[in-house]
Every structure is written in structure tokens, then in C-alpha cells.
Specification:
With about 260 residues, the chain is of the alpha/beta class. The chain folds into two domains: about 50 residues, no CATH class; about 140 residues, Nucleotidyltransferase, domain 5. Helices cover about 40% and strands about 10% of the residues. It has nine helices and six strands; from the N terminus they run H-H-H-H-H-E-E-E-E-H-E-H-E-H-H. Strands 1, 2, 3, 4, 5 and 6 form a six-stranded mixed β-sheet that branches. A hairpin with a 5-residue loop joins strand 3 and strand 4. Helix 4 crosses helix 5. The protein is elongated and about 90 Å long. The relative contact order is 0.10. The model has no long low-confidence stretch (mean pLDDT about 85).
């Protein structure tokens, strides 16, 4: 009792530690695991072994396909149905049969507040609409560039590849015709951004040299460039449903729509 009082513990705790010391020695004095000895929801060993065997027989199948395949062919050994694909994925991961995805490097968004839009050329919004193929199989990547204040469509041009080397000549012509914007807002994808220093791509560095500020929206937040995101739906409905038969006709459709 006096010893417990000296160390500031209750007699119950003191006697418990003494009993553990007698049973397990010095290792018994530390805190023991609070995990329950029995897990009523734990997947049975027979089920786990069958899932592992199925994965080994079909190493390229994912959990969802494995569960569907087993449901069609045999009952679960537990009698309660096969586990959910998410549970199967965890079991296969613990068994070393599934490799985790390599973390994706993401470009940091623009860290400053977005520029205020009060008049034309304060902000231009740029983006690629999802690519598609013309009737003769040519790939088209529609590049759209719009002024945020006036909503004027500055560019609607189909590129063969979404590369900075193809975007730059289009922007050079646009700069000569309409002047330079204060800022250009884009997503975090290539060719507008990169995972390099400051998230700047070669194209963005080219913008900075004459004083244009490249703004990047946050990943997973297309509403921050919502002017173009909403516009793309109209562009597709008016010019690419269905796509034109050739690239030249598709570009004429873009030009007609822009006019």
C-alpha cells in the first residue's frame, strides 16, 4: 500500500503489476495489447486459403472479378457468401499477392489567391477537351481558350497531340491578335504544368517571360476553371456528335461554332 502511494498508483494497479511480473517477468510490467482474443467478423481460414488459391490461378484478376467468378462457381466455405471485393483486396495485399500503387506525383496548385476578373485580358482560361477521333481515325485534341470577363472564345483549335510545342504557335497567333493577358488559368496537367520546380512547365515558363502569371487550379476541383468545363459540353454537342469525317472538316466545324 505504501509503495503504491509513493508511486502514485492505486493498489489495484500495483497488485496487477506484481502478478504480471510473477507470471511473465520484466516483460509483464509493460502495457499488454488490448486487441480482443476473438474476432467474430474475421474471415475464416478456409475462405482466405480459397481466395489466395484463386488469385494464384488467375494472377491478373482483381478482387471484384475474383469474387464474381467464385460466386458463379462455388459456395463460400463459411456458408455466408464470399467477402466484399474491398475485403478480398485487403486479404490479398496481406498475403503479398497485390502490390500497392506507386504514389502519383502531383503538381502543387497556385498558392496565391486567383486574380480578380474585372475587364477583358485580366484572365484567360485554357484547357483541352477530352480527345476523340474523326471518322477516318485521326485523333483530335480540342484546345479551348476563353477570356474570363467577356466569355469571348479566343481559340477553338483541334491539335493532333496535347503538347506544348503544338500549343505555343496557337498562343503566339492569339497574343498578336488580342494582346497579352494578365493571367492564364489551367489545370495541373501537361503541357500547362509539370512536377518540376514550382510546378512550371516549359510552356508556363514561356508565359512568365513577358509577365503573364500562370494560375493552376487544385487537383480534383474543375469548378475552379468552370467557365471552360461547362463550355466543353456545349462544344461537344454542337461540333462532335457525331465527329466529322476528317480533321479538316472537324476544324471547320470548330471555326463555324466559334464564329
Amino acid at each position: 500500500m505504501d509503495l503504491c502511494q509513493a508511486f502514485g498508483v492505486s493498489p489495484k494497479t500495483g497488485y496487477k503489476r506484481v502478478q504480471r511480473f510473477r507470471a511473465w517477468g520484466w516483460e509483464g510490467l509493460g502495457d499488454l495489447s488490448r486487441a480482443p482474443h476473438v474476432h467474430p467478423n474475421r474471415t475464416g481460414r478456409a475462405v482466405v486459403e480459397r481466395l489466395i488459391l484463386a488469385r494464384q490461378d488467375h494472377p491478373t484478376w482483381g478482387p471484384k472479378k475474383l469474387v464474381a467468378w467464385l460466386n458463379d462457381r462455388e459456395p463460400c466455405p463459411s456458408g455466408e457468401g464470399w467477402p466484399a471485393p474491398s475485403t478480398v483486396g485487403d486479404l490479398l495485399y496481406r498475403a503479398g499477392l497485390v502490390r500497392g500503387r506507386k504514389p502519383r506525383r502531383r503538381t502543387a496548385p497556385w498558392s496565391q489567391p486567383f486574380a480578380e476578373v474585372e475587364q477583358p485580358n485580366d484572365l484567360w482560361c485554357i484547357d483541352f477537351k477530352g480527345w476523340f477521333r474523326t471518322g477516318n481515325g485521326v485523333r483530335v485534341n480540342p484546345l479551348a481558350l476563353a477570356d474570363a470577363a467577356s466569355r469571348y472564345l479566343l481559340v477553338c483549335h483541334g491539335l493532333r497531340q496535347p503538347r506544348g510545342s503544338q500549343v505555343r504557335p496557337v498562343l503566339e497567333r492569339t497574343f498578336r491578335e488580342y494582346g497579352l493577358p494578365r493571367s492564364i488559368r489551367s489545370d495541373n496537367g501537361s503541357p500547362f504544368a509539370s512536377v518540376g520546380l514550382g510546378g512550371l512547365s516549359t510552356l508556363a515558363v514561356w508565359w512568365i517571360k513577358p509577365g503573364i502569371i500562370p494560375e493552376r487550379i487544385e487537383p480534383g476541383h474543375p469548378e475552379q476553371n468552370g467557365r471552360l468545363e461547362r463550355f466543353h459540353r456545349t462544344l461537344k454537342a454542337e461540333t462532335a456528335k457525331p465527329p466529322q469525317s476528317t480533321w479538316q472538316k472537324q476544324q471547320r466545324a470548330f471555326d463555324t461554332f466559334r464564329t
